[in-house]
Amino acid sequence: xxxxxxxxxxxxxxxxxxxxxxxxxxxxxxxxxxxxxxxxxxxxxxxxxxxxxxxxxxxxxxxxxxxxxxxxxxxxxxxxxxxxxxxxxxxxxxxxxxxxxxxxxxxxxxxxxxxxxxxxxxxxxxxxxxxxxxxxxxxxxxxxxxxxxxxxxxxxxxxxxxxxxxxxxxxxxxxxxxxxxxxxxxxxxxxxxxxxxxxxxxxxxxxxxxxxxxxxxxxxxxxxxxxxxxxxxxxxxxxxxxxxxxxxxxxxxxxxxxxxxxxxxxxxxxxxxxxxxxxxxxxxxxxxxxxxxxxxxxxxxxx
Length: 303
Description:
The structure is a single chain. This protein is α/β, with parallel strands linked by helices and 303 residues long. The protein folds into two domains: 6-118, Orthogonal Bundle (Arc Repressor Mutant, subunit A); 120-303, Trna Endonuclease, Chain: A, domain 1. The chain has 14 helices and ten strands. The chain has helices at residues 10-16, 25-35, 40-43, 54-68, 84-92, 98-101, 105-111, 122-125, 130-153, 158-171, 222-234, 250-257, 269-278, 296-300, and strands spanning 23-24, 72-76, 79-82, 182-184, 195-198, 206-212, 219-220, 239-244, 247-248, 263-267. The strands form three sheets. The protein has a five-stranded mixed sheet with strand order 4-5-6-8-10, with helices on both faces. It has a three-stranded antiparallel sheet with strand order 1-3-2. The longest helix is centred in the middle third of the chain and has 24 residues, at 130-153. The protein starts with 9 loop residues before the first helix and ends with a helix. The relative contact order is 0.08.
């Protein structure tokens, strides 16, 4: 038999974790393969990229979708557990497919769908050009990756989050080539500054960092920025980076834009995940596709 589609693993995944205990990804895959009678030959089938098995990839996508629909949770890194909503899904007797998951508001936000367009037909989808379909798929893959990244970032300790921020900035090229170009300040006496990094390769100036690991639905307001600016002034610093897993209020953004003599750059949770993906922090390249187009100029020349 062929490897089932990723959404055909939804119910099997939930059944595997329905005991309420924590399960590793490997445990879930092994149990699903056993109960759904996935042969060793089918499990060995690889994606076109050759980087991962089709079975592992599809089970991982099933996990992501179930998580975003609130049917499972990851209280510990790499360990999954069913939620009450997941148990209700199994008890309901309904088919657990994409349509079922779209009952969840959080899933619709993640999947960029709503009740009005969740019944779009295959014919309508085929109205998109191949490039549009490719772009859409790329955006969805990155959206899922960004969401998974933030899930892992939120499990870090406060000190671990500060180290991650410094590592990201170094990866972006700040202080490139300088030993000790970036560091986390001691938590016991940081004076409102969580980290310091050199701005350039010669180390002419420092950028001072404030890192707030807040819930993604929280808002960083103007008062928090005012405290940070006060800390910068205490260091006689003119450049600061306020980075958070949450979001900034409009008042905070306006305050940062109107500062005189001090430059404060704001990075929210959405931008943080994009920067991590762009600079390969916490992620790895699975495959690179080259998309080519016809060179009309080439054929307009005389041979």
